Amino acid sequence: MVRVVIENLTKIFKGPKGESIQAVDKAALDVEDGEFLVLVGPSGCGKSTILRMIAGLEDVTSGTISIDGKMMNQVPPKDRNVAMVFQNYALYPHLTVYENLALGLKLRRHPKAETELHVREVAIALGLADCLDRHPAALSGGQRQRVALGRAIVLQPKVFLFDEPLSNLDAKMRVQMRREISKLHARLGATMIYVTHDQVEAMTLGDRIVVMKRGVIQQVGDPMTLYRQPANMFVAGFIGSPPMNFFTGSILQTDGGIAFHEKVAPGTGRPGFMLPLEKDHAARLANHVGGEIILGVRPENILTVLPDTPASSVISATLELIEPTGAETYLYLATGAHSFAIRTGTGFPGTVGQEMTLAFDKHHVHFFDPATERVIG
User: Fold this and answer.
1) Which of 1, 94, 269, 375 is positioned for an S-S bond with 33, CB 3.0–4.6 A?
2) H or E element, residue 4
3) Strands 191-196 vs 159-163: parallel, antiparallel or unpaired
4) What is the reported pLDDT for 308?
5) What is the pLDDT of residue 270?
C-alpha cells in the first residue's frame, strides 16, 4: 500500500528583505494507494511547493510527510523512491531518447540487459519506439514530454509527481497528453500527485481534487462534488467554465414565503429582480432574513423562459455578448447590477442589445455568507 500522508505541512520562505512569506499553511492530505490526486489553484497558491516538499526539493518548515508509512522529512530526495515530471522537459540535449530514458537506471546501476528491456517496453507504450536514436532537438513538444514521462516510468517509483507537465504544449496536444496520462495511470495503478492551474485538466484527470488558495486548502473532493457542492465562493468560482455566477442581494420575508432580492446601486434606473425561493431554502436561510447574502448559480442553470414558466420566477436582462463555441453557445447578460453568463445550445437566434426573459433553476442555486464567503447550509 503506497499512501502519502501529509500532516500540518507548513512552508515559510524568507523574502528579499528578510520578511516571512507563508507559501503553505498547515496542509493536511491523505493520498490513497493508486489514487490520482490533483492539486489545483492560481499561481502562487502553494501547490507546487507541496509537490517539491514531497519530492524533497524543498525543506519542510513544520509538519510531516510520510510515504508508505515512513517519515520522509529528513530522507534525501534520491532515497524517497519518487519520480517527478516538470513543466519544462529537463532532457539532456546531448543524449539520445534512449540515453535520456535509461539514465536513471544507469545511475542506479541496473544490469544493462534489464535496463534495455525496461526502456524499450516504456518506449513502445508511449509511442517512442521509432525515436530512440534521436536527440531532443529533433522531437516535437509532445514527444519531448513523453520522453520526460518515460524517464519517470522506467524507474518504477512508489509515487509519481507531476508539476504542470502540460503547460508548454498547445491546446490539441494537451488534450492528447491528458489521455496518455490517464491511460498510464490506469495501466500502472500507481499513486500519482499532479499539479496544475488548469481546472479543466483537474476535472478530467483527478480521482480527487485539492483546491488551494494562498497556501490554504479550500476543499478536497471528487470533481463533481466540487462542481455541485462547493464549500465556498472561491471553489465555486474557480471550478467550472464559465464559472458560477454571483448575485449580491438580501433575503426578504414575503406573504408567499421567502425571496431573494437583488441589490442595485442607487441611480442605475433599473430595479433589482425579486426571486421567490423554494420552501426547502427557508430553514437554511432563516437567520439571514433581512440581511445581505450572495446567490450563486451555474450558467447551465439559468434557462430561457418556457411558456409555462411562472411569471414570479422570471427575471429580465440585457444581452451584451454572444460567444458561439460550436456545440454550445455562451451568452453574457446584465441586470441592473450584475453581469452573468448562461450556457445554451448551438445556433442561438438572439442579437446583442435585446432584452431577454430568463428563469433560474431554483433547485440548483447556492447561497454564500458575504462575510466568510462560505456556503450556507
Assistant:
1) 1
2) strand 4-14
3) parallel
4) 64
5) 73
Nearest residue to 327 via CA among 348, 306, 341: 348
Could you tell me which residues are beta bridge partners of residue 29?
6
Neighbour order of strands in the sheet with 328-334:
302-304, 355-360, 314-324, 328-334, 339-345
Among candidate residues 38, 35, 11, 3, the one with its CA nearest the CA of residue 165: 38
Provide the pLDDT for residue 138: 93
Grid cell of 63 as nine digits: 509538519
Which residue, among 193, 211, 249, has the nearest Cα to 37 in the 3D structure? 193
Closest CA to 32 of 175, 190, 256: 190
Q: Following CA atoms 64, 7, 26, 11 in sequence, which dihedral angle do they give, to the nearest 10 degrees? A: 20
List of residues 6+ apart from 230 with CB closer than 8 A: 219, 236, 239, 244, 296, 366, 375
**How much is the average pLDDT of 353-365?**
90
H/E run at residue 143: helix 141-153
- Cα gap 118→99, rounded to integer Å: 12
**Beta-bridge mates of residue 289:** 251
Residue 98's pLDDT band, with cuts at 50, 70 and 90, is very high
Please provide the size of the chain in residues: 377
Residue 199 CB coordination number (10 Å): 21
CB distance 72 to 66 below 8 Å: yes
- For the chain, domains (ranges, CATH) are 4-238 (3.40.50.300), 245-368 (2.40.50.140)
> Cell digits for 53?
516538499
Question: Under 8 Å CB-to-CB from 50, ≥6 apart: which residues?
Answer: 6, 9, 11, 24, 27, 39, 195
How much is the average pLDDT of 59-80? Answer: 94
242 prior amide bond cis, ω within 30: yes
Rounded Cα–Cα distance for residues 309 and 176 (Å): 43
Only one residue has cell 522531437, namely 139
Question: Cell 436561510 belongs to which residue?
Answer: 285
